[in-house]
Design brief:
- 2 copies of one chain form a homodimer.
- By secondary structure, chain A is α/β, with parallel strands linked by helices.
- The first copy, chain A, folds into 5 domains: 94 residues, Ubiquitin-like (UB roll); 71 residues, Ubiquitin-like (UB roll) (Roll), CATH 3.10.20.880; 147 residues, Nucleotidyltransferase, domain 5, CATH 3.30.420; 160 residues, ATPase, nucleotide binding domain (Nucleotidyltransferase, domain 5, 2-Layer Sandwich), CATH 3.30.420.40; 89 residues, no CATH class.
- Helix content of chain A is 29%, strand content 26%.
- In chain A, strand 22 and strand 23 form a beta hairpin.
- In chain A, helix 11 crosses helix 16.
- The longest helix of chain A is centred in the middle third of the chain and has 25 residues.
- The radius of gyration of chain A is 26 Å and the shape is globular.
Chain lengths: 615, 615
């Protein structure tokens, strides 16, 4: 009996016979799980967590390796465990021989730090029988006296420590003031830190920032653990509609992941989480609502209405974030539908308000947001591009981790490729998939409609469909071949067609032609690593001179950082959000004909739903 | 072997031999514990909770009656349990044959309701593809459009339900607005309720109020369960100093008690706790700090400094109060030392700012706060009067419950008394103790110095001290006699001397003589029930015409209600608190000589530490 095993967070899938252990299956697929003792159950290094599916009973080695709570949570040794059904596993990072590529860098905008939270040095008079003011009033009045700052109150959680702290600091303190509130106290001098988070559907990127100079002290990213409740936003929302209690669970998963990132960031920067006096979190509207446990049912049906659109300031304790107890979390404003605060952050980072000419700005992900900037007008759509570019729904797809093919060229029979970290190939990440599709089109294996020819020595038929062998079993030295199937091509056509359609709808709504586009700004992890020429070749992006494309990395994360260190950037974000004209793609008049045309491969222009090929 | 058994919350103590059950001991003392089956362990009606001390192992009846958690918490059947040491028991109200007198009424001041939270009817436009505003923005903008109310935000906990609620209410809602925030939403029309709480050291009084008309819908009181951590504020503070974790426990106890009161108030008024959109809580400074889990260590040593003096507004969820999730709790301002928000509330209720002439206002309790009002000046002190007037430290003292002697007259050999609910006498509550002391002084059993004569047929010697038999064993039909001992008199002299000293220090500080006092306002449960003539006879209060005394009941609770229904009363409270001149009694120059004089019995005046008797 063969079972399908899904290895998360790599996103790599394969089949495993029931007489092979999960470790054997991983090896078969080339996934690097640690196994110091060689699979004897002695070293306990090959830990995995079974998320779904049935597996064999724990062996005595596993009883030794795990607590009963861990066993209940699905923790197992891969070498001791045999599948009894299709399974989804999580491979913890400590069990991996090589680490996943996480991408946190992006454009940097020079901005003079002027954060919402400001630190003041306060030297308080000592209480006496003739000065019996309360500790809180003493602090507030001294702040006013020494700095002309009039605060109305001190956060209740700060007050819960104020008396012993002021005494142990000998009446000298640093007060962190936010608007009219004291949100943190520390000994003088203390670091004032901030946290910026880009909460993506697939990945969470985080940044620890020194608020005094805007410097990034550490940056970390992890996979979004909500993935076990659905790969894309629609599936996670449906999950909460079906089972409202999962809303709480999804929130916890996101918050726990961010809390773990905070611990790691602080370790790297030798900092304390209690010094983080402000956080900014951005995400698409579903991530935003799920993080705050806002209702999402109304986001599941048209008209897709947000519970909250505007920027929010909430106490970190109200979502359980472990930073300074009195600190706030600032959520940048959303736009509408599925165009959320992460897109606003991206527009902030690329300085959308100062853009010249016609600019297309897109953040490619499981959900792709596209904006067209034209003078001071911004028009936005959201396209459900799906998980194909993150390795989902693609037979040998995987996320951007060691051993993923990220670049690929086909010359006749010769396949040349480059893998992440130069490791033996185990699958294709998004940029590799995109290259493969473009190359197969260029060498004629795929026609304009995406149909795969059978007249190529590397094309074979398996399970009643054609597939192109990128790396054969022989080249793999016995491990499974890496192929791209006709079905994969269809998935990719849907994904890239959705993005191209979004661009077309924006152009037609604003009355511009493709030639008038002065710049295409591509943000997001996938967008950073793609070969733009391949994206143009398959018709995902309009055919324009390559100099007009700009890949900006994790611009959403950069925007979150800007909003963290600059009050005026927050104001700008609110201005951007309220200026955007949002188009509901499904209801756009020109959506359907465009979509059909946009799924074609090759270089072409679409005008009024008609496709015209170029050269 | 005889053990001392303390029955809480009655405050009645007695001795029990180790071969008698706790039920027998209660019967012996006349305490009415239910016992339907007559002590066979079958009916489970005589439940008690052992708070401290060691008792016999649970019998099989008790194993049946209680869960293992309950047994662990000290729950036992009184008929099955035998003491193995001195014990402190709690008798739950459901196990009592008669209920304790709880006193919640007080002066009522007519005030036009204008609460901090106001309700608005909102009729929202339905979302459509051409109106995709978020639900929050739709609410805020409609409020502005329909009522010219500009709110900045909606509480996060309100937002967590907003989308399904607005849809189920068909886009018609009631918004509860507090300053610039929406703190609750309900269907239109909904009741808007408020909660006022007087958190006393011994008793918690609570009021459920209709905010639209200021009407009190229900009033309830319970004993403060923190009592098991110390009878007075000093002991509770020391407990937290010694064992900081107890700070959390003391907070929980207070919050749980208030949460239970909320449930009972809502049952009585047929209301829902989620409709309570605002709460006002007053208490002395220790109760205030312990409720909020503010630091108290600095309150344990001179100079006694508060963590927070000013009025506070905190989210109900930040202390775990179960009212509307977005509601605020307002804490009236404290004054200083141990003069807290309850005294401010009392001054508010008696309209201190409009008082004419020289007024002494005192709230007698375990801690007694006294203010002298003189034109627009207010001078305040706090006196540690101790628990004697609540039955503590008095051999046969008890709280004001069924069977307590509350009035008493002595004529030669004849003792006449009145008990609460006309039940057979089981002890003396505060007003009874006060009467006894005054009567014994008047008939010559006590001299001015408080010494008890031995030349009275009802005076006997027990355990090497004289005691006066109020009710003999014979009159008690075999139950223990009720007596007042020389030691009791000494305790009472300390208590009443502290109060009189407070008054004297205020008079001397402000340059007034006793004769100039135009009115003495007496608040608090004990103060309501005392015979003022007795209080004057023993020199607790100055000798003035009885028409100058005014007993106003639970004025602190009434003040909390005023602050609940009227914004302007809150402003007035803040003005009162900041206007008060506070005197630290222990450091007042005239404290010690006054205190010695003030412990004398009889009618006299004290001037500059000298006592002068009046006829």
């Amino acid at each position: 009996m063969l079972y399908k095993i899904d290895f998360e967070p790599l996103g790599r899938r394969g089949h495993c016979p029931d007489d092979k252990s999960l470790l054997d299956c991983a090896r078969q697929l080339g996934i690097g799980i640690l196994s110091v003792c060689g699979g004897q159950g002695k070293c306990h290094s090959c830990k995995v967590q079974v998320l779904t599916g049935t597996v064999s009973e724990p062996t005595s080695s596993e009883q030794d390796a795990f607590s009963s709570q861990e066993l209940e949570d699905g923790y197992r040794l891969a070498c001791q465990t045999y599948p009894l059904s299709d399974c989804k596993l999580r491979v913890p990072s400590e069990s991996m021989t090589t680490l996943q590529r996480t991408q946190v860098e992006g454009v940097e905008v020079a901005v003079r730090p002027k954060p919402t939270v400001h630190a003041y040095h306060v030297q308080l008079p000592t209480p006496s029988l003739s000065d019996l003011r309360g500790d809180a009033e003493r602090m507030l009045e001294t702040l006013h006296h020494q700095h002309q700052i009039r605060c109305s109150h001190i956060d209740i959680d700060v007050l819960r420590d104020i008396s012993p702290q002021l005494r142990s600091w000998k009446w000298q303190a640093q007060a962190s003031v936010r608007n009219n509130e004291v949100v943190a106290l520390g000994p003088w001098p203390s670091r004032q830190l901030g946290l910026a988070v880009d909460l993506g559907t697939t990945k969470i990127a985080s940044y620890l920032v020194d608020l005094s100079n805007g410097q990034t002290l550490a940056a970390k990213a992890v996979m979004n653990p909500q993935i076990s409740y659905g790969e894309d936003v629609i599936n996670r929302i449906y999950q909460v509609v079906k089972s409202p209690a999962d809303g709480t669970r999804l929130q916890q998963l996101a918050v726990e992941a961010v809390n773990r990132l905070i611990v790691e960031l602080c370790e790297t920067a030798d900092a304390e989480a209690e010094k983080i006096v402000e956080a900014v979190i951005v995400g698409n509207t579903a991530m935003h609502h799920l993080l705050l446990r806002l209702p999402v049912n109304q986001l599941a049906y048209s008209p897709f209405v947000l519970a909250v659109r505007d920027a929010m300031n909430i106490k970190s304790r109200d979502i359980g974030l472990h930073i300074a107890p009195g600190a706030y979390v600032h959520l940048l404003p959303n736009i509408a539908g599925f165009v959320g605060a992460d897109h606003v952050a991206m527009l902030l980072a690329i300085e959308a308000t100062q853009a010249k000419g016609v600019v297309i700005a897109l953040d490619i992900g499981t959900n792709t947001e596209v904006s067209l900037l034209d003078d001071d007008k911004i028009t936005s759509v959201s396209c459900a591009s799906g998980p194909a570019f993150e390795g989902g729904h693609i037979k040998d797809g995987m996320r951007a981790a060691s051993g993923a093919i990220e670049r690929l060229r086909v010359t006749d029979n010769l396949i040349q490729y480059q893998t992440i970290d130069g490791m033996p190939p185990i699958g294709l990440c998004g940029s590799g998939v995109l290259d493969a599709m473009a190359q197969l089109y260029l060498v004629g294996v795929l026609d304009k409609g995406g149909r795969m020819t059978q007249n190529h020595p590397r094309v074979r038929v398996r399970k009643k469909q054609r597939e192109f062998i990128l790396v054969s079993e022989k080249e793999q030295e016995g491990r499974p071949a890496i192929t791209i199937t006709q079905q994969d091509i269809r998935e990719l056509q849907l994904a890239k067609g959705a993005i191209r359609t979004g661009i077309q709808v924006l152009l037609e709504t604003t009355g511009h032609s493709e030639e008038e586009i002065d710049q295409v700004v591509i943000a997001g992890a996938f967008g950073t690593y793609i070969d733009v020429a391949s994206a143009v070749t398959i018709g995902m992006l309009p055919s324009l001179p390559l100099t007009r494309f700009r890949q900006v990395g994790n611009a959403a994360g950069m925007g979150a950082k800007l909003a963290l260190i600059s009050r005026s950037k927050r104001t700008e974000a609110q201005a951007i959000a309220s200026r955007v004209h949002y188009i509901e793609l499904a209801t756009a008049a020109n959506f359907n004909p465009s979509f059909v045309q946009a799924s074609y491969l090759g270089r072409y222009r679409i005008t009024h739903g008609k496709r015209k090929e170029i050269d």
